[in-house]
Amino acid sequence: MKIVILDGYTENPGDLSWDGFRALGELTVYDRTSAEDIIERINGAEAVIINKTPLSRETLEACPGIRYIGVLATGYNVVDTEAAKEQDITITNIPAYGTAAVGQFAVALLLEICHHIGYHDKEVHQGRWEKNADWCFWDYPLIELAGKTMGIIGFGRIGQTTGAIAKALGMRVIAYDEIQNETGRTIAEYVSLDALLSQSDIISLHCPLFPSTQGIINKHTIARMKDGVILLNNSRGPLVVEQDLAEALNSGKVYAAGLDVVSTEPIRPDNPLLTAKNCIITPHISWASRESRQRLMDIAVENLSAFLKNNPQNVINN
Question: Which of 136, 197, 212, 237 could form a disulfide with 262 if both were Cys (CB 3.0 to 4.6 A apart)?
Answer without folding.
Answer: 237
